[in-house]
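If your schedule permits, I should be very grateful for your opinion on a structural question. Please examine both parts with care and let me know of anything in them that strikes you as inconsistent. The record follows directly beneath this note:
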Amino acid sequence: ADHPELVDVLIPGYDFANRDSDPEDDAGHGTKVCGVIGAKGANATGGAGVAWSTPIEIMPLKFMKNNDGSTTGYTSDAVDAIYYAVDHGARIINASWGFSSYSNALKEAIQYANDHGVLFVASAGNDGQDNDTVAHYPSNYQVANVIAVAAMNRYDELASFSNYGQYSVHVAAPGSGLKTTDIDGGTSTWASGTSFAFPRLKPTRPLP
């Protein structure tokens, strides 16, 4: 939360994994995603997020935590986080996470976001699979506000690890070999994954 590249864009959030008001990142993933979005630019240090020159606010909502080197969490906490985001004024929800199990409660939460005009952008997954054949959630939910994002490499090709799908994946964005923020105030120089492709996706028209 006190990363010098992010401190000016982060606003209070919540930790649903530990049920407290301190959503401190103990795995590094959330910090990297935040940096791709909003790391400070024009300061002669680190990198710059795609929205560095745009007035934005990032609300960190944590529902997964580091458990002996693995990042794990509960779908029920993800559901709570979505309702919290919508009820606290979020315009866009970044879902840089996923799994293979269908959850009706999660779909209902995303529908709640849709009913309140909140865009839900989800990473397509990193298994190199066709999501039309093997479902990946939440990116596969057929709700109007869901945008599923694949990752491209530096050659504007689909990254080798990225999931894809003619009907279930909507767009691709750079998501390989990115420089971004990391925990303890540091910098990651080779972040790759569909998690980092969504933050690179810049809207080309005003959001509803």
Residues 75-87 form the longest helix (13 residues). The radius of gyration is 16 Å.
